[in-house]
Structures are given as C-alpha cells and as structure tokens.
Specification:
Elements: H1 9-13, E1 22-30, E2 35-38, E3 44-45, E4 49-53, E5 59-64, E6 78-84, H2 88-101, H3 108-123, E7 141-145, H4 150-166, E8 173-179, E9 186-191, H5 195-218
Antiparallel strand pairs: 1-4, 1-6, 2-3, 2-7, 4-5, 5-9, 6-8, 8-9
Helix pairs in contact: 2-3, 2-4, 3-4
C-alpha cells in the first residue's frame, strides 16, 4: 500500500484566494484500498484519494470527512473548495489520532481502520465515548470486503481511537479541511517541523539575510 503523502502547507494554501479562502482542486485518483460499508455509506473505497492543487500544481493525498456525499471524479475537472475548520474537540482528537498512529500505517487495512477512526471522530455526537461497533450505533461498520476479520478490524479502529483520546503530547501535524457543497469534504495534514529543525531553519534564514545585508552594504558605494 502506497504511504499517504503529506502536503506542504505553504505550496498548498498560498495559492488560495485570501479574500474568498478558496482553493481549486482536481481529483486525480484512488489508491488500492479496502471496501467498507457503514451506516452512512455503501462499499466505500478507503484507498488514498489523490488531489492536485490546480493553481500550484502540487499533488497531495486526503482523507474523507463527509460520508453523505461522493468524492469528486476526474471527469468533474477543477472544483473550488473552501477552507473549513473542525471544532476544538474534533481538532484535539484528530491531532491525537495523527500524532499516535499516522506514522505507523503500513497496510490497506491500517489505512481503512484509520479512515474509519476519522469518520467516528467527525460523525459521532458523543465524543466522550469514542468507539465503533459492527452493525450498531449512530456510526457503525456494517460490513467489509477483503479484511481477514471484521471483529479484528473494529478492534483496530477502537485502538486508534483510544490512543487519540489519551494523547496529551504536542501537535505533530497541521490539519487542513476543504469543504464543498456537492462533493465530500476532505482532510489533509502537514507535518509540523521539530523545534530544533525550525530553529536551524530560522538561524539559516537569518544568516542568509545578514549575509545579503553585508553584501549589499559592501557594494553600496559602487551603485
């Protein structure tokens, strides 16, 4: 299973119209994945959805947030998405989910379980008791295709949710939500640089600015 890539926030968002907060995206395709049936969708392919920012040309992978609508197809060409947001509680849980489990996703089953955990966080009305049950509840997994055991799959989803609920560490990812009236809302993430890396980047930039300043001052009399 191809690892889901993380988008670069600057290239992805800087091309958005600041006043309207809109981003033009094109659907590229689905990666290989598992088919799931839930209380909200039938035979949903959980493979990574690849999109392209038509303004910057950058491609990125996204997760589904909205189960009530289909995702855009390549035939739909470029679509304008607005930049959305999550509630404070959803943001905290999604940060916990990505920070504890995202880096360890390897198989298509892992990706399907992770996608299901996102659905639970964004669709469950009682976020104080996160869990999925087969064929039960407001949000439930009612069937699957290609998974060795539905019970084991549900247990894996609930394990991700438990880790997300318990996480108290720093935010390791920046979340971006794209909303659309006709197609699925999307979620993509950007890794947050470690403090040491950010510091080195900052020092490097300052050093470059200082060097340019000295060079400019040195040549000032010859202009």
């Amino acid at each position: 299973m191809k690892k889901i890539l993380v988008a670069t926030a600057g290239a992805l968002l800087l091309s958005a119209n600041a006043s309207a907060a809109m981003v033009d995206l094109e659907f590229v395709g689905n990666g290989p994945g598992e088919l799931l049936t839930t209380t909200f969708s039938s035979n949903y392919l959980t493979g990574a959805m690849e999109f392209r920012n038509s303004q910057s040309g950058q491609s990125f992978y996204a997760y589904c947030v909205d189960l009530m609508q289909d995702h855009a197809e390549a035939s739909d060409l470029t679509q304008a998405y607005s930049l959305g947001s999550f509630s404070a509680r959803e943001t905290s849980l999604l940060q916990g989910l990505f920070s504890t489990s995202y880096a360890g996703l390897k198989t298509s089953t892992d990706q399907a379980a992770f996608q299901t955990a996102i659905w639970e966080i964004t669709h469950e009305s009682d976020l104080s008791a996160l869990n999925v049950q087969k064929n039960a509840g407001v949000f439930a997994v009612s069937g699957s295709s290609g998974l060795a055991s539905d019970s084991a799959f549900v247990e894996q989803v609930n394990s991700y949710l438990g880790l997300a609920s318990q996480y108290k560490g720093p935010d390791l990812y920046s979340l971006t939500r794209f909303n659309h009236e006709e197609f699925q809302d999307l979620l993509t993430v950007t890794a947050v640089p470690e403090p040491s890396s950010a510091l080195l980047m900052g020092l490097g930039l300052l050093g470059f600015v200082a060097f340019c300043g000295r060079r400019r001052n040195g040549k000032g009399t010859s202009l």
